[in-house]
Amino acid sequence: LEAxxxxxxxxxxxxxxxxxxxxxxxxxxxxxRIAVDKNAVVVVDEIxxxxxxxxxxxxxxxxxxxxxxxxxxxxxxGFAISAVIGKKEVMDQAQETFISGTFWTERIGFAAALxxxxxxxxxxxxxHLIAIGTKIGNGWELLAEKHxxxxxxxxxxxxxxxxxxYGELNSAIVTLFTQExxxxxxxxxxxxxxxxAHNEEIVEEYLESVDEVFGIMADAITNxxxxxxxxxxxxxxxxxxxx
Length: 243
What we know:
Layout: H1 2-7, E1 12-16, H2 25-38, E2 41-45, H3 59-62, E3 68-71, E4 83-86, H4 88-91, H5 108-123, H6 125-147, E5 151-153, E6 159-164, H7 170-183, E7 191-193, H8 200-222, H9 226-229
Parallel strand pairs: 1-2, 2-3
Antiparallel strand pairs: 3-4, 5-6, 6-7
Helix pairs in contact: 6-8, 7-8
């Protein structure tokens, strides 16, 4: 990052609050230092991470001092709403241009966001998301150890994610997991966006199915028979399919 900043004329730095793991303190310090040196605007994308760790964004926990923060539909419990907020001296620049929108008079998203934020703050919903995500991650780790599977768990608990360590077989392994979990009534992948509706009973029932499926996966890996177990094509790798 610092090498890039030396070679380029940077005016804006855009980072995510968190995705699967948190940015390191060293990275945050570098961003802040470069922003000061370059007089650059720091934009934090909290569309995924916002409201899941605190009453706002992850930037409130890591010491970053952003100029602009962006939120998405999470602030409206899924209703169509977004927000771009920021420091007055930065946001005032919008007065120098023309901004318009087709749905400015639409009120459902705004009403949903106001009510959702009220509940999020009153109930401290993020504490529940962190606790449930931690329980799921711990369950994955225990079951992986039981069945001898190689996986790691990410740090961002409200979007808890397991990552398998089998190289080129990873996509096929996750596909097998999804296939077998579907047979047990779960639309499941390697990540879970934890919801306020999730509770410990739901997680326990889910982990019972994971236990069965991890056993199937371990057997397939040991016997080199993953492709033979698959009843569908191997999943696409996210945005790679677009490039």
